[in-house]
Structures are given as structure tokens and as C-alpha cells.
Specification:
By secondary structure, this protein is mainly α. Strands 1-2 form a two-stranded antiparallel ribbon. Helix 4 crosses helix 5. It is globular and about 45 Å long.
Amino acid sequence: MNVFRILGDVSHLLAIIILLMKILKSKSCAGISGKSQILFALVFTTRYLDLFTTFISVYNTVMKVIFLICAYVTVYMIYAKFRKTLDSENDSFRLEFLLVPVTGLSFLENHSFTPLEILWTFSIYLESVAILPQLFMISKTGEAETITTHYLFFLGLYRALYIANWVWRYYTENFYDQIAIVSGVVQTIFYCDFFYLYVTKVLKGKKLSLPMPV
């Protein structure tokens, strides 16, 4: 365990807490893509099946349980408790465009052809694109609430810190996981434009707005 991994986990957890607090405080899921949250719940579910087979550490187990609980609580609040505030018109990204290729790639490119390993690989590939429905939704509406941008910033920061974690592990442990690294880099690239807008607009007190699609 290194400082980049810990900071990455803290950033990830902070992103989720910001999202949950936003929904609870406003009693609304406006501006939040329920489809992205479904994908993240699926990511955690397929990745953390090893909770039933392997014990790594107390820290590892606790973090996995927290992420699972938070993911499903978020989905519940969006699709049940605050369903009337769901912006289904703009949350219109077709999930099959992500799920079908990710599933196929998981069977073609993995570390070993076993059920748990394929599901773990599926979760890695899916996480790299799970934010796309949220970014697509923002592009359709042309803007995002400040609290939502904070959520996205810390979510992107988590992936950037994990890249630093993999670099550190490569030089200190000679550890290299091509699937996780490539997927993490792809995911971070999706956030690049957002990071620029966050620094140049949100941190200066301006509202993040995008050109409306024609």
C-alpha cells in the first residue's frame, strides 16, 4: 500500500460522499445520470465478488463493502426515493453501446479464462467508460451544477492517482497490470476536457457550461 493508492481511495470515497450529500440535501437527483450510477454499481458488484473467496486485509474488505453499499444506495435514491426528479429525457445514453463491447472484450482479453477473472476484467473495462452517460448528459443540457462538477473532479482525480500508484508499483515492486493500466489511462483521458473546464471556470467561481449540441 502506497500513498497514491490511499489518496486515490480517499478521492474516490469523497466523490461518492459528495454525490450522496448532493442528492440528500437537495432531495433531487437532477443533473445526475442514473445510468452512470447503474454502471458503477455493476462495476463494484462484478469486481468485488472476491469478498466471498479471498481475504486481503481489513482495509481492503471495509472499502469494498463501503463502495458497494454506497453504489446501491445511490441507485435506490435515483430510481426509487427521488424518482420524480430523474431527468430521463437527458439521461438518454444507450447502455448497450457500452455493455456489449465491454462484455466481448472481457472474454477476449483477460488474465485467465475463469468466471471470477472474466468478471473482474469486465469491471475494469466497464469502469473506464461508466462515466460516459454522465458526460453525455452534461453535453446535452449544456451545464452542470457546481456540486456535480466537484463529484466529477474527485472521481477523475481518483483515476489519475491510481495511475501514479501503478507507476510507483512498477518501479518499487516490478508490478505491471496491462489491463488495469490501459483502462485507467483511457478513463482519465475522458476527464481531460472536464479537468480543464473545472480549473478555468469552477475554481474561479463560474458555472460550468458547455456549448449546446446542434
